[in-house]
Amino acid sequence: MRAEVVGIGTEILLGQIANSNAQWISERLAEIGVDVMHHQAVGDNVERIADAFRLGLERADAVISTGGLGPTQDDVTREGLSLAIGAELERHPEIEEFLREKFRSLRRSMPEINLRQADVPSGCRYMLPERGTAPGIAWQRDGKRVYAIPGVPAEMREMMQGTILPELSEASGASALVSRVIRATGIAESKVAELLDDLFRGSTNPTVAYLASSGEVKVRLTAKAASRGEAEDLIRPVAEEVAHRLGGAAFTTGDEDLEQVVGRLLRAAGKMVACAESLTGGGLAQRLTRSPGASEYFLGSAVCYSAESKRHVLGVSKETLEGPGVVSEECAREMAAGARRVFSAEVGVALTGVAGPEPHGGQPPGQVWVALDAADVKEVRGFRAPGDRDQVVRWAEQSALDLLRRYLQHRVRS
Amino acid sequence: MRAEVVGIGTEILLGQIANSNAQWISERLAEIGVDVMHHQAVGDNVERIADAFRLGLERADAVISTGGLGPTQDDVTREGLSLAIGAELERHPEIEEFLREKFRSLRRSMPEINLRQADVPSGCRYMLPERGTAPGIAWQRDGKRVYAIPGVPAEMREMMQGTILPELSEASGASALVSRVIRATGIAESKVAELLDDLFRGSTNPTVAYLASSGEVKVRLTAKAASRGEAEDLIRPVAEEVAHRLGGAAFTTGDEDLEQVVGRLLRAAGKMVACAESLTGGGLAQRLTRSPGASEYFLGSAVCYSAESKRHVLGVSKETLEGPGVVSEECAREMAAGARRVFSAEVGVALTGVAGPEPHGGQPPGQVWVALDAADVKEVRGFRAPGDRDQVVRWAEQSALDLLRRYLQHRVRS
After folding, report:
1. Among B23, B30, B305, whose Cβ lies nearest the Cβ of A295?
2. Which of A282, A352, B198, B269 could form a disulfide with B286 if both were Cys (CB 3.0 to 4.6 A apart)?
3. Closest residue of B to A32, CA-based?
């Protein structure tokens, strides 16, 4: 089965918003073995929308459009689809009632214009939304399908997951494409390239590819087979080999972020962590609190931007501040110990450094010190992170999370 | 002049990467008054790439493709373009020399396969890159143009800015399209819709549109005229009218984020701020430290996730923790005063609340309290933020920044 994804909205063509829906939908379709051969994007224009549907139906078995289903006059996907399939718009009393009820429950009066959302081309089904007010539209004839769904990502995902993916998965009976990502940190990209060189070149099913970003390398394995199970069987031994070669640097073979892995390890160890941050400005705390339930392992973070606050809040010594300074091994050590003490935590993790673009505390941009303080382990590491301000911050956060991970996996010993 | 943007690469269709180039290029083209009517994306397939160029050339005056110019066998944009325009690939010795020199300067040996990058369809110009190794290709005939440039964003931008935008701008002799965004916060989307209703409906040059996200409404004015100056003259009075009607809710008519406005106001007032955060987990500190130079006005933030740390680090009273609890007006007040005291700041800002999805401290998800503490002003505000965990957090950060802004603009008095 071949599918095509059509983004509708002049704001996409003006570059005012990214057409992120196309990526999300494509990734989901790949997972169920549906081949996406083209993306299109068109503006809010009836003729051009109709042409986009016609072109999509020539090339693909299923066309999924997002956007243009709002209540206002510039939302004309309904009209464009009608034109493409030679249908007339019909007003559906059940949708009208659904809309009136939505507005009643919000205690708002419904503008008459909103009734346009009750119009559906003849011969089409409609999907009432949980979120928002825009119904989705589904059309099917001679083995060809069109789904027109809202452009608001949460509303789009709801209809994809609730209706479209199950329908297409069943209709395609397709071969499955399965991807697995192994993520590693604390290892250079060139080292990964060297360790896995034969697999990048030689492995075809699964294919092996990698992508590096600040402080992290992702290795993606993708296998194609008649079923999901078979594709997974093809991936498993290669994934094990990749994880084995990457050793301690690989932190997940699932779909977890580093902070999720750390959260899981902290929870398992029954340990509470506290942080002290300087250059990351709260970024480390934010990553540790991204998941619900973070309060089970995270106590807090002292974000101390100034030298005075490092002294008063964290108790960094006058000698350290006046000697090696705020960007130093000693300062990182004392910040980690301070975080552990101030928050009464089992583990303290601290970061100090220079985000840039200017030097700071006599140190160049990119200089980072990360320290961990626990009853059994005191550890400090320094490095120079490459890149601009954002990349240095991201790299620093990553290094602190990784030090915590390695400590929890007993890979760091004093 | 009409243009079309074609993203080339199977990884786009698999959803492995976002086609962010299309957005960036579209935004730049809009700025020089070139209308983008369609986006396309196709995989690494010679026939389909050729079809995409042909379709683009039927519909538009200029087609800009990104991607598929690498050295490996799956990069076939050169072949696809040749097929579309009926040309043959020719190897260029100057590009060959350029490639060899690039590799020499990196002290690496050049694989023979890389010479594919020296192939250019006959009758085309080429653009040698500063970054990377992939030359861009330009073709022109009977008023139609094609530019094929690399997909790596930095390499793409270099060729857009250095060659393509100047050429298209000159060729189009185009009218200029200018956009201005007025951003407002602390005001309901429906209120904005009501206040600006006549402009949304009636104003055509500039057009007036709005977009709401968590805690912020953006009003975008877009004018078209013979020159940039004329377009700006059309926008100015409408922008003033919009800002006037939105009153204190409008925080910028430029392109500043709320945290940039707050940073600018703090710097102008010569005041240092400190924060105390709970549900935002460092997000408020992070937004305040996003810009270089934040240390001129930001001292730090105590991210206190647990009740104990609110007590020990910030000095929230036992009575408050045992009475109204961690999610309360009183707790927010005491946290703000604590932040001001602990960091020796002129202004303390605090946030406490429930990010969700579970209730916390006897309060429902979305309940947020924000407080500000200064010598002259003590202010606290409570509200229920809608949406999921991420949205609630974003809304809370926004409300704290906005309270700080209004205080600095003397819009809050005790």
Report:
1. B305
2. A282
3. B14
User: What's the whole-model pTM score?
Assistant: 0.72
Question: B291 exposed, middle or buried (CB, 10 Å; 0-12, 13-18, 19+)?
Answer: middle
Q: What is the CATH number of the domain that holds B138?
A: 3.40.980.10
Residue A278 C-alpha, separation from nearest chain B C-alpha, in angstroms:
8
Q: What is the C-alpha separation between A237 and A55, in angstroms, rounded?
A: 42
Final residue in a domain of this structure, among A172, A195, A221: A172
The CA distance from B55 to A59, in Å, is: 13
**Local confidence band at A174 (pLDDT 50, 70, 90 cut-offs):** low
Count of Cβ atoms closer than 10 Å to residue A387 Cβ: 16
Residue with tokens 């199950």: A166
Range among A70-79, B182-191, B206-215 rated most confident? A70-79
Q: In the structure, what pLDDT confidence band is assigned to residue B414 with cuts at 50, 70 and 90?
A: low
Is the domain of A164 the same as that of A184?
A: no
Is A262 inside a domain boundary? yes
Total of domains in chain A: 3
Q: Give how far Cα B206 sits from Cα of A219, B199, B223, Å.
A: 48, 9, 4
Please provide residue B376's backbone torsions phi and psi, each rounded to the nearest 5 degrees.
-95, -15
CB contact under 8 A, A303 and B283: no
Q: Which domain holds residue A391?
A: 258-408
In a domain, A351, yes or no: yes
Q: Would you place residue A413 in the very low, low, confident or very high pLDDT band (cuts 50, 70, 90)?
A: low
Would the CB atoms of A14 and B30 count as touching at under 8 Å?
A: yes
